[in-house]
Design a protein that fits this description.
- Strands 3, 4, 5, 6, 7, 14 and 15 form a seven-stranded mixed sheet that branches. Strands 10-9-8-11-12-13 form a six-stranded parallel sheet, sandwiched between helices. A two-stranded antiparallel sheet has the order 1-2.
- The protein is of the alpha/beta class and 332 residues long.
- The two termini are 19 Å apart.
- The chain is globular and about 60 Å long.
- Helix content is 29%, strand content 27%.
- The structure holds NADP nicotinamide-adenine-dinucleotide phosphate.
Length: 332
């Protein structure tokens, strides 16, 4: 029988700044609200948005914990009022709007999923943020269909490594860009048909060559800046471009005539501020369509490194070095 303590260790952001502002603190253990489960966290994934939050550029949505961390995996230890989906003792992973870098986290049961069979909890904790993001942007907004071509920028990122595997599993021809030959090799190992080292090759020319001049049907972009204009160039007629971040900035000089002449669709979204109900709808589709693939070993989170919770600052240093391929995970 698990006895939940009153207090826990969590990682706080002492003041916005460099990785060393992430420090272990003693905080109250959250109380699960209606429909929520309390999870004894075994693993918390690290995501690039956490870096933005640490720097003071991505405030948690109103009412959300100021503790960073958007995804967790662990064991259910208490049930909030009306929570019926999981039993105490069950291993789950879940999407949280904050509070993941901690020994305990509360998650709405509809935003949690059973930890996939055959994966470790460290792997399960690396799933929710990228799988929810890729599912909603590539398959729901981007409507990727079997037989289409798909280009993901940042192919070696947590998001990119997930997008490559899922797009491939659902029958697309996959192109990925990455910043080194090693990263390109990793993208190919994950199933990318073409990996483009953007430091040595022009991705527009490479994308056109890989599609016999037609251009790509869907682009998932986290770079922005001058990629916006170049994505319009690399896209096929009626191509779609889904924007999930602007690592190179949100402003650009763009030739919009291509948007009109090729009948392109350019859209985007963020996951974190969306409602519990919207996230639950994504979770339900993932459970039905992607969990069987995870449990059959047809896709898998690529864990590059794990760090003990207290070393969250080291994990952020690694992420900011961009030396990693795949996910970085904190273990508790
Ligand atoms: N909209 C949403 O809902 C949502 C949700 C989650 C994440 N995101 C965004 O998706 C992106 C990927 O997240 P992640 O956690 O997967 O990140 P990550 O693992 O840290 O990967 C980011 C990678 O992007 C590449 N990159 C390209 N241009 C870059 C630049 N100007 N600055 C830094 N890196 C650059 C780097 O690899 P190279 O060596 O190839 O350059 C880097 O390793 C982030 O921008 C994040 O904010 C959006």
């Amino acid at each position: 029988m698990h006895t939940t303590p009153e207090t826990m260790t969590a990682i706080g952001i002492a003041t916005p700044g460099a990785p060393e502002v992430l420090k272990p603190e003693t905080r109250p253990v959250p109380k699960p609200g209606p429909g929520e489960v309390l999870v004894a966290v075994a693993a918390a994934g690290v995501n690039r948005p956490d870096v933005l939050q640490r720097k003071g550029n991505y405030a948690p949505p109103p009412g959300t914990s100021d503790i960073p961390g958007l995804e967790i995996a662990g064991t259910v230890v208490a049930l909030g009022e009306g929570a019926t989906r999981f039993a105490i003792g069950q291993q789950v992973c879940g999407l949280v709007a904050g509070g993941g870098y901690a020994e305990y986290a509360a998650v709405h049961e509809s935003n949690a999923l059973p930890a996939p069979k055959g994966l470790s909890l460290a792997e399960a904790g690396a799933i929710p943020e990228t799988y929810f993001t890729v599912w909603t942007n590539v398959f729901q907004r981007g409507r990727l269909a079997a037989g289409e071509s798909f280009l993901v920028h940042g192919g070696s990122s947590g998001i990119g490594t997930t997008a490559i595997q899922l797009a491939k599993a659902f029958g697309a021809t996959v192109l990925a860009t990455a910043g080194s030959d090693d990263k390109c090799r990793a993208c190919r190992d994950l199933g990318a048909d073409h990996a483009i080292n953007y430091r040595t090759e022009d991705f527009v020319a490479a994308a056109r060559a890989a599609t016999e001049g037609r251009g790509v049907n869907l682009i998932l972009d986290m770079v922005g800046g001058d990629y916006i204009d170049r994505n319009y160039e690399a896209a096929a007629d009626q191509g779609r471009i889904v924007q999930i971040a602007f690592l190179n900035g949100p402003k650009a000089s763009v030739n919009f005539s291509r948007l009109m002449l090729k009948r392109l669709t350019h859209t985007g979204s963020t996951l974190r501020p969306r409602t519990v109900a919207e996230k639950a709808a994504i979770a339900a589709e993932l459970h039905e369509k992607v969990w069987p693939l995870l449990e059959a070993g047809r896709c898998k989170p690529l864990v590059h490194a794990t760090f003990p919770l207290a070393q969250a600052s080291e994990a952020h240093r690694l992420m900011e070095s961009s030396a990693h391929i795949g996910k970085i995970v904190l273990t508790v």
